[in-house]
Design brief:
The structure holds two protein chains of two kinds. By secondary structure, chain A is α+β, with helices and mostly antiparallel strands. In chain A, about 30% of the residues lie in helices and about 15% in strands. In chain A, about 35% of the residues are buried. In chain B, α11 runs antiparallel to α13 and α16 crosses α17.
């Protein structure tokens, strides 16, 4: 990590700090400028409303040619996020483009919270729950949000 | 295999028709004939391409599209990849629905207006550059060359998906043009990209496949109608393989059977069978024990338990009152009562199945080994021997080609013969253990088996003769060897074709053909045939046995012509003679009894070469 930080990462960091996206806060860790502590607030009128979800985001050596690595730290009941916090999102995998940024990635994750996609599941049992009985699944998601994601 | 010569194939192909009417060889004009290939390759329904030829072919496909559609080669390549490298389909679809295809493949036809400003910010590195030093795909989204380079190189390093590289702008999807790639990729990456492009043609197309031999760069095109049927192909590197399953060439056995057989050969199941067949478990610790010598008093080497091998009871119970130490009354009485029957039966069955498998496997493996050594001999020592021979006998090497042809034939036949054992193993399982084809009645199957073994035996006989002859490797055997190569090739080719048609058809042809083909055939031959027919329709009786005996006579009597002449003797001999004339007619030649040359002129009274008179009919 002794290598100088690419200008792109510096600029992205500055912009994230100076003009944060609504409902998202991201700041680099003190000891590693490639490691970001992220908080995404549960979008309104979603089962996650009122929750604040912690994530970690890491920019690999070949960023921006390779996608950043993102993971939920807070437990969340969501068909596209598994119990280890890994996220099933196309732009984090094969649809990554170097023209995307940290900000766009985080906005996409926020959108994923608003619109869970049980047809492309990562957590099979959650997705099944979602498809069989959406109302009940949403209730569980709300319950989890209240239990794990709401620090006063 | 590349020199396409229509119709200029083996001369015996002409006689082919009375044997195979279904036209397993539906050789239309477009089919090239494999004029050198050994017998197993069906008349070349395939073509071998070297890398250069592949490039040429790719270029042709590209031109076929670029000339019609006025798009550049890079775009044409994307379009062709979408349509599995079929230029006709690509062109047609494009005319039907150009707009949606353009969108899907990423070829937009409207170009962005050039940027007016002198500098622009690259949205990958966030630096501003002179607009002139930046590149864009047809969409006009500018990025700096450094970022383009890392973008393209990352994609190339990731694999063949780089062939579908799109503009990095989110939601744009425009294909990256040849111009940009040429500009930014260094030579190593460019070469890699081109290799992927070439590979994509072979890998996308159903009709093309790579030769699976290590380090071989050739590709094979399947020219049959459906394009992907299982045919045996021989690559220029001399590796013979099945187009469909990529295993070694395996006619007349089908791909699924080969897979089963190979799994069986490698699997543990036969070990277990052996254990079941040859061991009993220690009654106490249940470890399997093989009794290889000694008396019935067993002591388990593991748990020291002492027991009787026969009744498996504790040895302590044995002694004078059980009939002495060397006999076991309990066993005898239990056996009389039928107590041991089930276990015995199971063990017996396992042993039979194992023996049966070993029978086929040994022959399969022996032929395989023999094929490998012959192949080695043909490739390594033969060229040297040939040049020596050519010096000694003052014969040009080109005239000695027949020797290497004979060797190639040996190699090829060994492979076919090998697979006929697999065929036999799976086809006739029901006769011995009821595992084979359930659709065929048992007696019919037994009849088929006899007939199959007869044919296999004959083929094997020819091959052994050819093999031993070829090993002598002397110039004066020229005619013999050429004739024998021809006979063996024909025989194996027919064996394969007939087996693929099915044994019932084969048996029918075999019994009907002589009457229709040789109306002038003498009375003994016909009675011989009638007898043969009788004996064949009454299998599993003395008649069946006789057929097999005849098979032996026939095998020994090869060349068949020798069986002719002489006074009528036993019925079996009549039958042999009948078969000889049938075989001649079917094979399309008669073989000289002295030099074994295959004579094609049936009206001739003497051998074409050595002039030995042909034995009377």
């Amino acid at each position: 990590m002794a290598a100088q930080l690419p200008r792109r990462i510096l600029k992205e960091t500055q912009r994230l700090l100076s003009e944060p996206a609504p409902g998202i806060s991201a700041s680099p860790a003190d000891d590693n400028a490639r490691h970001f502590n992220v908080i995404i607030f549960g979008p309104d009128s979603s089962p996650y409303e009122g929750g604040s979800f912690k994530l970690e985001l890491f920019l690999p050596e070949d960023y921006p040619m390779a996608a950043p690595k993102v993971r939920f730290l807070t437990k969340i009941y969501h068909p596209n996020i598994d119990k280890l916090g890994r996220i099933c999102l196309d732009i984090l995998k094969d649809k990554w483009s170097p023209a995307l940024q940290i900000r766009t990635v985080l906005l996409s994750i926020q959108a994923l919270l608003s619109a869970p996609n049980p047809d492309d599941p990562l957590a099979e049992n959650v997705a099944k729950h979602w498809k069989d009985n959406e109302q009940e699944a949403v209730a569980t998601a709300k319950e989890w949000t209240r239990m794990y994601a709401s620090q006063a | 295999m590349n020199d396409l010569s229509d119709g200029d194939d083996y001369d015996y192909d002409d006689y082919d028709d009375h044997m195979s009417e279904d036209g397993g060889s539906s050789d239309g004009d477009e089919y090239a004939f494999d004029s050198q290939g050994p017998s197993s390759s069906r008349q070349a329904q395939y073509q071998v391409f070297s890398e250069a030829e592949l490039r040429e072919r790719q270029q042709q496909a590209l031109s076929a599209v670029t000339s019609v559609l006025s798009i550049d080669e890079n775009d044409a390549a994307r379009l062709l990849r979408k349509y599995k490298w079929d230029p006709n389909q690509a062109n047609e679809e494009w005319f039907m629905n150009a707009d949606s295809i353009r969108k899907e493949v990423g070829l937009s036809d409207h170009r962005a207006p050039p940027t007016r400003s002198k500098t622009a910010v690259c949205s990958i590195c966030f630096d501003s550059h002179k607009a002139g030093s930046m590149c864009a795909a047809a969409c006009g989204h500018l990025y700096c060359k450094n970022c383009w380079r890392s973008y393209a190189e990352t994609a190339v390093n990731e694999g063949p998906s780089c062939l579908d590289l799109r503009c990095p702008t989110v939601g744009c999807g425009a294909a990256v043009t040849q111009g940009v790639l040429d500009e930014v990729l260094d030579k190593a990456h460019r070469t890699k990209y081109d290799r992927y492009a070439l590979r994509s043609m072979v890998e996308d197309s159903r009709r093309l496949t790579w030769c699976p031999s290590p380090d071989c760069q050739h590709a094979i095109e399947n020219l049959t109608d459906s394009g992907a049927v299982a045919i045996d192909v021989v690559c220029k590197c001399s590796h013979a393989f099945c187009f469909s399953c990529h295993e070694e060439a395996h006619r007349p056995v089908d791909c699924a059977t080969v897979k089963r057989w190979l799994i069986k050969n490698s699997a543990e199941s036969e070990n277990l069978n052996w254990i079941l067949a040859h061991t009993k478990q220690c009654p106490q610790c249940k470890r399997p024990i093989e009794k290889n010598q000694g008396c019935m008093h067993m002591t388990c080497s593991q748990c020291r338990h002492e027991f009787c091998w026969l009744c498996q009871g504790a040895w302590a119970d044995h002694g004078e009152r059980t009939g002495g130490f060397y006999a076991c009354n309990r066993y005898e009485s239990a056996q009389r009562a039928g107590e041991h029957d089930e276990e015995m039966f199971k063990r017996e069955q396992a042993r039979n199945a194992l023996e049966r498998y070993m029978h086929y496997y040994q022959r399969w493996a022996e032929n395989d080994a023999s094929r490998k050594t012959s192949r080695k001999a043909a490739q390594e020592t033969l060229p040297e021997q040939l040049s020596q021979l050519s010096e000694w006998t003052a014969t040009p090497t080109s005239q000695l080609n027949f020797i290497s042809e004979a060797w190639d034939q040996v190699v090829d036949c060994r492979r076919i013969l090998k697979w006929t054992y697999t065929y036999g193993y799976y086809t006739f399982g029901a006769v011995s253990d009821g595992t084979g084809d359930k659709d065929v009645a048992k007696d019919v199957l037994a009849q088929h088996q006899e007939f199959f073994e007869f044919n296999q035996g004959q083929a094997e006989g020819y091959l052994e003769k050819l093999h031993s002859m070829a090993e002598k490797n002397l110039g004066e055997f020229r005619e013999t060897l050429i004739g024998l190569t021809d006979v063996t090739r024909t025989h194996f080719r027919k064996l394969v074709e007939e087996l693929e048609k099915g044994l019932s058809v084969m048996l029918n042809d075999y019994m009907v053909a002589p009457a229709s083909m040789e109306p002038e055939a003498p009375a003994p031959a016909i009675t011989g045939d009638l007898k043969g027919e009788k004996s064949l329709t009454k299998p599993r009786t003395a008649g069946g046995k006789r057929t097999r005996a005849t098979a032996k006579t026939e095998r020994e009597a090869a060349p068949p012509a020798q069986a002719r002449g002489g006074s009528p003797r036993a019925a079996a001999h009549d039958r042999a003679r009948g078969q000889a004339s049938d075989l001649e007619a079917q094979a399309g030649f008669w073989q000289c009894s002295s030099c074994t040359l295959a004579n094609h002129d049936f009206s001739a009274t003497a051998c074409e070469v050595c002039e030995t008179p042909r034995p009377a009919h």
